[in-house]
Design a protein that fits this description.
4-stranded antiparallel β-sheet, globular, mainly beta
Length: 153
């Protein structure tokens, strides 16, 4: 949500992002197919969409919106120009997948993101139980904590 509360930011399971006017109750703009990751299973000839939006983070100046997706990327969107400016695909690169009764799960789906240090550092956490701190200016991983939430004491 914007600082003023006027605009709500929504991510969908189909990889779209909508900016909705809270007062007028309509979509101001959309980023269609914001993430277009797919995984193809050759055995069953089934296409599993892994582009669902899991988390959104708004920059302090409200000009940029960051989105975390099941396709292992963080999208960077310019709200003013209404264009996708970047796709950070280097934070989570593992290709670990496993099959459970014909269900494929991507273990490094990014499930949450947060901007800190005046929007220069992105904290992301993944379904593979890792947390990454990424310098957005240098596009460089500062620190990655593996299996941070393993549940083992």
């Amino acid at each position: 949500m914007s600082k003023s509360g006027d605009t709500i930011f929504l991510g969908t399971a189909h990889g779209n992002i909508h900016l909705v006017s809270r007062e007028l109750k309509y979509i101001l703009t959309s980023f269609e197919n914001a993430h277009n990751g797919t995984f193809e299973m050759d055995v069953c000839l089934t296409l599993l969409m892994i582009d669902s939006i899991k988390s959104l983070a708004l920059a302090q100046n409200e000009h940029y919106l960051y989105s975390a997706s099941a396709d292992k990327t963080v999208g960077v969107f310019n709200i003013i120009s209404r264009k996708k400016e970047d796709s950070l695909d280097f934070i989570y690169t593992s290709i670990e997948i496993f099959m459970v009764q014909l269900l494929i799960l991507a273990l490094d789906t990014i499930v949450a993101i947060k901007l800190i240090k005046h929007d220069t550092v992105l904290i992301s956490c993944s379904a593979d139980k890792t947390i990454a701190f990424t310098n957005l200016l240098k596009k460089q991983i500062l620190k990655k904590f593996d299996h941070s939430f393993s549940g083992k004491q």
